[in-house]
């Protein structure tokens, strides 16, 4: 028994020590999801065997290599995105700004009929350069990916893809790079959304080279 509390107490009289196996899964989900923040959100577009387009947000998402670039996301349970990626090996990570947040949030629901989430949330499917799934035209940037590896981990299924094409919208570029304040991607914070518009001042932050990873 490594845990100090059998369930989340309203207040902590002493630090929490937890073997995650000892809490009900809903409590562990809430705790870990509020600790690993902010999480970038991959708005993943895929295409089904029947040609139907699919679009859904995944905040269990990150960069795993940069030469060549590789990204990962994790599907909690068997979902359409995972099925499509396993079937045809391709996906696009669309990176949304604040302007697309309403649409992105809507795509966490399944469309009522045979329509796709692109229709449900009213975004434009634009042809990709290197893969069959289209990209979301309104997104600030898009990473076209091919599947290199997938495997289960806990209740998740991890998908790693190699980025074969990168598209950056001209509006987020300034002074030779992606300008954080212009890009301002939406992120997942605990149960809320946030944005990265506030950069730390040079006095608050360590030098850039210390931040390489
Ligand atoms: C902001 C946000 C982030 C999400 N992140 C994940 C995630 O990382 N993994 C996951 O399995 N579901 C995640 N979901 C839920 C899926 O988007 C949802 O189950 C969706 O219906 C899956 O669609 P699909 O079946 O078309 O792939 C997230 C939902 C939201 C709103």
UniProtKB/TrEMBL annotation:
Its cofactor is FMN. Keywords: Flavoprotein, FMN. Signal peptide: none annotated. The keyword Glycosyltransferase does not apply. The keyword Nucleus does not apply. InterPro entries: Flavin_Rdtase-like_dom (IPR002563), Split_barrel_FMN-bd (IPR012349). Residues 34-180 form the Flavin reductase like domain. Gene3D superfamilies: Electron Transport, Fmn-binding Protein, Chain A (2.30.110.10). SUPFAM superfamilies: FMN-binding split barrel (SSF50475). Belongs to the flavoredoxin family. PANTHER family: FLAVIN REDUCTASE LIKE DOMAIN-CONTAINING PROTEIN, FLAVOPROTEIN OXYGENASE. This is Flavin reductase like domain-containing protein. It comes from Fodinicola feengrottensis.
